[in-house]
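Open question from group meeting: does this chain pack into something compact, or does most of it stay loose? Before anyone orders reagents, we agreed to write out a predicted structure and look at it together. Recording both the input and the output here so the notebook holds the full record.
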Amino acid sequence: MTESFHVLGSFIQMNVSEFLIIPASEQHIHYAERICEEMFESAKARGTGIARRTPEYVANKMKEGKAVIALHKDGRWAGFCYIETWSHGEYVANSGLIVSSEFRQYGLAKAIKKRIFDLSREKYPKSKIFGLTTGLAVMKINSDLGYEPVPYSELTQDEEFWKGCQSCVNYDILMMKERKNCMCTAMLWDPVEKEKELRAKLEMKAKARERLKEMTKKSSLLKRIEAKLWKSTKKFVQTALQPRNSGSDKTGSTIPQGINN
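Structure tokens returned:
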């Protein structure tokens, strides 16, 4: 039930572009047993619990188009993750994230998680997407995708989901805490909340544009006022500096003061 992947691997230079990450189908069923073995060995190496899945279960996910597989360009299996739905599709879980031991440390887990997240959104646009994990790396990937840590009470309460935890080594802890907490961290991506966040951001941007528009108008008005004041001031100064010949007649001759005609 939990998401996980190991962090050790070879040091061969490689990047995500060398892999094909696609929705799995019937043509990939022959990888099912290998995938289950890798999941088990990875969980055992970490010493943490994970709900075990059978090759038949994994193969069925491939048939239903509810899984993503990663293949190296030479055809070698590289990674896998699948979709589970609960509470009549209200909740979706991206589970069983695993990367082959020979292809770790190349960012493949993040690429697979992004692809399975996109596939989940395509198939179940109204569903809440959640995950339970003990892995810090997976928590970081989930956080980058927009997941938020939540209490177990915000997850599906579908009994079938919780039955899937029975094969986990930490199942007794889960039951002892009445399914309110365990070793895994619960994370949730809620489309309703994300829609609210998006609307809030759009409203903030719209308000910011309006403020900028208003500021631009005020700036333009101030510039016009400034130009008008400068023009008036300039005219006043020019007038003030002009010489005054109040003692001259119309012909420009000076009339002696104090002499009467």
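Observations to bring back to the group:
The domain at 16-189 is CATH 3.40.630.30 (Aminopeptidase).
The radius of gyration is 36 Å.
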